[in-house]
Design goal:
Helix content: 25-40%
CATH topology: TATA-Binding Protein
Strand content: 35-45%
Order of helices and strands: HHEEHEEEE
Number of strands: 6
Shape: globular
Number of domains: 1
Structural class: alpha+beta
Length: about 120
Amino acid sequence: MKHGCSIVAAVVLVLSLCSAALAQVSYPPAMAAEASPYPGAAVAMAGKDANAIQAMLTTPDAPEKVVAHYRSQLTSKGWEVAQEMEMPQVRTISFERGESTFTVAAMPQGDGRDTMITLVLEAK
């Protein structure tokens, strides 16, 4: 009977995690003021600490397309490209405007069919 209860508990845990993963998270308003969410992307996670706002999104688009989108959107709002890196596993681009930074990282996930976008806005 203990074994049966353990299996039921495991199934309930997996189902609750799946439902939480499917829940849509709100895109941070302060981040939206600088850059809207990537078109068609799902917001997987968002948070804020004392110095930064973070958001994680997923999209089926390629990392190159994601970086190009944010480069266009942020430079049109006065952000300047501070650093850009292209590595096999991740593409990153960082922007500066005054004392603030906005970083975009785009990384293929799993079988490469999805891209995880990580956005970090640090305002000083």
